Task: inverse folding
């Protein structure tokens, strides 16, 4: 059956025109969540298609033709008391602004971003479109917890020639999400493909960066792996990222290492948070270049981080035909501790000492 994206009814939309941003909320067609759940597959498909249809937006433009667009991904988490909490939306707002500047577009104000996202989650929440906190998640430390995924993105004005978007829209849709990586296979493999190169757009969370990683990930999956790991463009020696996540190695000497941010590494908010949490746990951290050889010989645990992935470990890495296991094939001790801490804060089970969560 065709997969229809389940977009929640309330959508945020802002537009830059006459040197200012103005915004609004759009209520797309919907029934109650219970009524929608009872629809036949065909009826449900028809309804969801109207929800993901925006006749007010032009089809032919710089974004759809040339990939001139950027986006964000952030989550709102249900807490036990029924409230919903966004994780570090100010960080996403700041990165989105940088991305738009990187694509030479008028930047979207950070306060509008945070307010717009929170209000969209709140409105959907009021209609009952929200995941319900399940105490059973506590047993697995929220590894299988559900959340609202919010996807704000830029979208250009109508155009067909080469040019910059001068009057973009910013749209934010949201969808329910469960866990990202299917349990089972957590094998990773290095890829010869190049995600980012010095002087390129690797540091921007832009549409154009996703083509190569998707091809690499799907190629890896065909060979029986879950994920592809990118090495640097120039020497093909240093580890960069997973297909859309930052990467960490916990070394045998007790240090947690992640590649330092240059213009080929995306500054992940989960990455930044994990560095803080590791320091809280008394683990020494280093942001530096790490070669694939060092990682394979000195690494004890390996995991990737991202809003969608959370913290996901790899049981092994295959490089040039050799497979090296990590964490005895399971999620290692340090990875587990960091994952529990992060998810605990997100779902309100651990004290939020850094005040990362924003109640909507
Ligand atoms: C979004 C993204 C990440 C993860 O960033 P988070 O802020 O942690 O979600 C990592 N790498 C790439 C290439 C990304 O696009």
Result:
């Amino acid at each position: 059956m065709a997969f229809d994206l389940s977009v929640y009814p309330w959508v945020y939309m802002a537009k830059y025109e006459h040197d200012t941003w103005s915004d609004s909320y759009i209520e797309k067609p919907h029934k109650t969540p219970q009524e929608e759940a009872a629809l036949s597959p065909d009826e449900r498909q028809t309804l969801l298609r109207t929800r993901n249809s925006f006749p007010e937006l032009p089809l032919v433009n710089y974004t759809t033709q040339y990939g001139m667009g950027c986006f964000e991904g952030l989550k709102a988490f249900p807490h036990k008391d029924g409230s919903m909490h966004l994780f570090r939306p100010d960080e996403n707002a700041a990165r989105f602004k940088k991305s738009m500047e990187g694509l030479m577009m008028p930047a979207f104000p950070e306060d509008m971003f945070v307010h717009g996202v929170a209000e969209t989650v709140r409105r959907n929440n009021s209609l009952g479109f929200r995941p319900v906190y399940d105490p059973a998640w506590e047993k697995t430390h929220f590894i299988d917890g559900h959340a609202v995924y919010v996807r704000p993105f830029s979208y250009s004005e109508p155009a067909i020639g080469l040019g910059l978007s001068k009057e973009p829209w910013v749209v934010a849709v949201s969808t329910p999400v469960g866990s990202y990586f299917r349990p089972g296979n957590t094998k990773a493999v290095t890829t010869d493909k190049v995600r980012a190169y010095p002087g390129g757009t690797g540091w921007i969370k832009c549409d154009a960066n996703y083509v190569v990683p998707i091809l690499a990930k799907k190629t890896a999956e065909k060979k029986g792996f879950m994920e592809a790991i990118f090495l640097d463009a120039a020497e093909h020696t240093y580890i960069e990222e997973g297909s859309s996540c930052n990467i960490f190695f916990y070394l045998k000497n007790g240090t947690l290492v992640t590649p330092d941010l240059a213009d080929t590494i995306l500054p992940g908010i989960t990455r930044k948070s994990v560095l803080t949490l590791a320091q809280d746990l008394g683990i020494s951290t280093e942001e530096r270049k790490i070669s694939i050889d060092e990682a394979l010989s000195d690494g004890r645990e390996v995991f990737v981080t991202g809003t969608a992935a959370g913290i996901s470990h790899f049981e092994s890495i295959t490089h040039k035909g050799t497979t090296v296991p990590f964490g005895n094939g399971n999620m290692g001790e340090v990875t587990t501790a960091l994952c529990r801490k992060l998810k605990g804060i997100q779902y309100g089970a651990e004290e939020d000492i850094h005040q990362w969560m924003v109640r909507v």
